[in-house]
Amino acid sequence: MATAIVFDSGVGGLSVFDCIAAALPDLRLLYVADNAYFPYGTKEEAALVARVRDLLVGLTQRFRPDLLVIACNTASTVALPAVREALTVPIVGTVPAIKPAAQASVTRVIGLLGTPGTVRRQYTQALIDEFAPDCTVLRHGSVELVDLAEQKLRGESTAPAAVERALAGLFDQPGGERIDTVVLACTHFPLLAADLAASAPRPLHWIDSGAAIARRVAALLDGSVAAASADAPPRHRAIFTARTAAVEKLRPALSLRGLQEIAFVE
Q: Could you give the CA distance from residue 216 to residue 219 in angstroms, rounded to a whole number?
């Protein structure tokens, strides 16, 4: 049975996991969260590159996946070249969905909502220069939304005022009233899709990379995912890098995704 690792710093990559699982129901998925080093968005770049590279090399040697998905914009925009240099397994990264946002925007004003590191990196600017040169891209980096997504998956309430504060950093900028499309440039943020839509000042087009990643995974595996038996569906597994009380609170959300088994690599 073909196996893929879906990797993130926390639970944000579950938004990508969901898309892959829906598109490839016979693919076995190992969801890996580096919660010991969470959040990635505030970490120094050189340390983050070394952390992600070394951890993914170790995971690949241990589990021998057919494919690896870095389901984290921050890790992808910083560490993807180093990880690809260290490994031969196919690797799919996650980058801000600037191109489809530019194709969708009518007003030509796009909001870019991500972590502070992702929205300011040169990699992101290069995507804007290439795919949205005629658009105004307003950016806002929010660590608070990452924390809110983690809380929501643990079954804790998310205060609308907190979501509104995070969105104000985007829409209160000059030109913010013309935004018609928002790029969710952090995989945590689609987990808050309903909260974001409810707190937004008007109806908007929200775009993330989950479906595109699932299509890329399917293309790279290209027929190597054999149909699982109805009596033996693929057994997914969640793996964390730290044993915490928060992990226990995640069990219901993980179980809903077929992630009943939880393991730890420390």
A: 5
Distance (Å, whole) CA 242 – CA 263: 10
* Distance of alpha carbon 165 from alpha carbon 41, whole angstroms: 19
Contact of 228 with 26, CB cutoff 8 Å:
yes
Q: Which residues belong to the active site?
A: 72, 186
C-alpha angle 228-13-240 in degrees, rounded to nearest 5: 85
Q: Is the Cα dihedral 41, 9, 254, 230 positive or negative?
A: positive
Helix, coil or strand: residue 17: helix
Residue 236's region, left for phi above 0, alpha for psi from -120 to 50, else beta, is beta
Q: Please answer whether residues 2 and 27 qualify as being in contact, where contact means their C-beta atoms are separated by less than 8 angstroms.
A: yes
Question: Rounded distance, CA 212 to CA 50, Å?
Answer: 27
Per-residue pLDDT of the chain in tens (266 residues, 90 and over written 9): 899 999 999 999 999 999 999 999 999 999 999 999 998 878 899 999 999 999 999 999 999 999 999 999 999 989 999 999 999 999 999 999 999 999 999 999 999 999 988 899 899 999 999 999 999 999 999 989 999 999 999 999 888 898 999 899 999 999 999 999 999 999 999 999 999 999 999 999 999 999 999 999 999 998 777 665 555 667 899 999 999 999 999 999 999 999 999 999 97
Query: Among all chains, which residue has been given the structure tokens 């013309």?
Result: 178
Question: In the chain, at which residue ranges do the beta strands (DSSP E only) sit?
Answer: 3-8, 28-33, 67-70, 91-92, 109-114, 136-141, 181-185, 205-207, 237-240, 261-264
Kindly state the DSSP code that residue 35 receives in the 8-state scheme: G
Note whether 8 and 186 are within 8 A (CB): no
pTM: 0.93
